Amino acid sequence: MDRARRANMVKKLTTEELPKLLAELKHWQLSADGSSIHRSFKFADFNEAFGFMTRVAIKAQEMDHHPEWSNVYNKVEIALSTHTAKGLTERDIALAKFIDSIT
Predict the structure, then answer these.
(1) Is this prediction's pTM over 0.90?
(2) Among residues 75, 79, 87, 88, which one has the fewest Cβ atoms lying within 10 Å of its Cβ?
């Protein structure tokens, strides 16, 4: 990916861009302050949840964009935000789409 594209991915989404992009993420919820999106997952057991988290972790490392998450047995909670932009960016949307693609 070229430098200009990477820089654009960490630019905070505008109020005009956000609704269109969020419409593509049916299972994600916007936080009350609009600075992050979150989603809850429930799997058959811990092994399945951990496998899912491993796949997300590999992609997140490739993207150099890491989620805030928690795991209790078969439940995984994920919040996405770009701290350097103080809000949502294309990186969050891209990672959410990847996560959706593996569930």
Answers:
(1) no
(2) 75
Q: What is the pLDDT of residues 73-95, one digit of tens each?
A: 999 999 999 999 999 999 999 99
For residues 66 and 48, what is the distance between their CA atoms, to the nearest angstrom?
Answer: 20
Q: What is the pLDDT of residues 59-73, one digit of tens each?
A: 999 999 999 999 999
Q: Are 79 and 56 in contact (CB under 8 A)?
A: no
Using alpha carbons only, what angle is made at residue 86 by residues 82 and 88, rounded to the nearest 5 degrees?
Answer: 50
Alpha-carbon gap, residue 13 to 48, rounded angstroms: 33
Angstrom distance (rounded) from CA 97 to CA 4: 21
CB atoms within 10 A of CB 100: 14
